[in-house]
Give the backbone structure.
Amino acid sequence: MRKVLSLTYIGVFCLQINIQANQLTPIDKFAMIVNLEARKEYGSAQKKLEKLVRDKKNKNYVQACFMLANYYFESRRGIERNKIKARNYYDKALKAALPRANAGECKYQYITAICTRRSKYDSKQAYELLVKSATQGYAPAQAQLAFWSMKGIGIDKIDKEKVGEWARKSSRQGNMLGRALLGAYYLNVKKDYQKGFKLIKESADAGNRGGQYMMYYCLRLGKGATKDRIKAMDFLQKAADQGLEDAVGKLRIINSRKTKNNK
């Protein structure tokens, strides 16, 4: 009798959970997806995003399309790169975000900038959009602008001082990519290895893939820290799991060399 009651209770409890899940609003569902991503549960996040983007009227439609496009463009642990799917979702995000970007909303200017570069292959226009967002104080745009300034994306030549300027602004707002790039600026431009490593470590410890990739180099080359190849590879793997293109490429080269040496 007790077993029957226990099983009945479990069944009712599971039913209640399912009912509550079905009653979640699109905003609640997107918050759940963001939480899944923070926990590195990319496969679960991907499935929920695929469902969420079916409804163009939900308030998080643009962000959902943009996040899904990034998954397919960059890859994540357990999610293969798919440029066709990525471009499809970037186009959807761009179309929906453009009116709000043109109205001056910084978050949508940022999304439009990334979509423009990755789907329309127009780096200069993307850079201009990113500047508009960054000058309004939007930290993700400031960090991205620092990164593009470092890589020379959308501009005629690399601007090291712009890297420091935008990275510092985003880092002050708690953006961890900005902090990692500020660390790289101190490390490579100012030659302040102690300060540079400290900032990069803070970013990596917070789970930022840019910080993790830079930690790989710090530990691999002994910049600001004692050389440690095992820990370096661990950080490289973590960055690659989050789809950082440079980390994925570097890991592919290393694994290819290992395969050749083992033959």
